[in-house]
């Protein structure tokens, strides 16, 4: 049995930031960010590198193989944090196959914001050019200290609206699958990052033991 945390949320909901804070609070989590895994694999795999240059999506069997390969490198007690996966019906079926193989114990959270909030936040979203870490506002990446850059495609409202539309059409039904199975908790994503983190922690403290929590008293 392996503990799995899946973080969902509309674009700009702060999934990446909350994921980093979850890892810091509880420890023992390894990210599985599918896009990053594929890019890393493509550096040493000529076939994948050629496919990536075309801009086409990777076949599901290739994606599943990369995820499976990553899981096999983990220690027995290591938890997994999925951010941005699964995000479509075919990926959900892939998730189900892997979950059965490795006996996943799943907790999923969905950070809720509306479309207006998403548009406003994305216009201020910065990303790490090395690892794709994202946050609202300028700063440096907590993973590698690289200066964050404004994502240029986030400055185009039409592109953002298209992404939101895809999220509603493809990913929301997947979120509903987890909800129907009693594995999903919805988190109010409005407020400061600290306020949202407290809501996330309140839920996850029931599943994972915090490392060193300093009392505010």
Structure characterization notes:
- It is a single chain.
- This protein is an alpha/beta fold and 217 residues long.
- It has one domain: Rossmann fold (3-Layer(aba) Sandwich).
- Helices cover 46% and strands 18% of the residues.
- The strands form two sheets. Strands 2-3-1-4-8 form a five-stranded parallel sheet, sandwiched between helices.
- A hairpin with a 6-residue loop joins strand 5 and strand 6 (134-136).
- Helix 1 crosses helix 8 (193-204) and helix 2 packs across helix 4 (60-71).
- The termini are far apart.
Can you lay out the helices and strands and say which pair or pack?
Layout: E1 2-9, H1 15-26, E2 29-32, H2 34-42, H3 46-54, H4 60-71, E3 79-83, H5 89-102, E4 104-112, H6 115-122, E5 125-127, E6 134-136, E7 149-150, H7 157-180, E8 184-188, H8 193-204
Parallel strand pairs: 1-3, 1-4, 2-3, 4-8
Antiparallel strand pairs: 5-6, 5-7
Q: Tags for this entry?
A:
217 residues; alpha/beta; Rossmann fold; 5-stranded parallel sheet; 3-stranded antiparallel sheet; 46% helix
Question: Outline of this structure?
Answer:
The protein has about 220 residues and is of the alpha/beta class.
Tally of domains: 1
**Strand order, sheet with most strands:** 2-3-1-4-8
The largest pleated sheet is described as: 5 strands, parallel
Q: CATH topology, anyone?
A: Rossmann fold
SS summary, helix count: 8
Q: How do the SSEs run, as a string of H and E?
A: EHEHHHEHEHEEEHEH
The N- to C-terminal Cα distance equals 37 Å
Q: Using the coordinates above, name the CATH class.
A: Alpha Beta
């Amino acid at each position: 049995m392996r503990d799995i945390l899946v973080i969902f949320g509309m674009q700009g909901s702060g999934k990446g930031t909350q994921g980093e804070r979850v890892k810091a609070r509880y420890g023992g989590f390894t990210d599985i960010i599918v896009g990053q895994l594929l890019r890393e694999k493509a550096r040493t795999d000529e076939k994948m590198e050629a496919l990536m240059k075309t801009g086409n999506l990777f076949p599901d069997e290739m994606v599943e193989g990369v995820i499976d390969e990553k899981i096999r490198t983990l220690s027995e007690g290591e938890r997994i944090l999925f951010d941005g996966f699964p995000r479509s019906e075919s990926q959900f079926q892939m998730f189900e196959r892997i979950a059965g193989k490795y006996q996943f114990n799943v907790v999923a959270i969905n950070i809720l914001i509306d479309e207006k909030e998403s548009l406003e936040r994305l216009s201020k979203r910065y990303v790490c050019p090395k690892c794709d870490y994202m946050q609202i506002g300028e700063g440096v990446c907590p993973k590698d200290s690289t200066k964050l850059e404004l994502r240029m495609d986030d400055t185009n409202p039409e592109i953002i609206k298209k992404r939101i539309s895809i999220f509603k059409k493809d990913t929301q039904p997947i979120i509903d699958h987890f909800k129907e199975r009693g594995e999903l908790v919805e988190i109010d994503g409005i407020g400061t990052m600290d306020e949202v983190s407290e809501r996330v922690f309140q839920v996850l403290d029931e599943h994972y033991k915090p490392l060193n929590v300093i009392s505010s008293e």
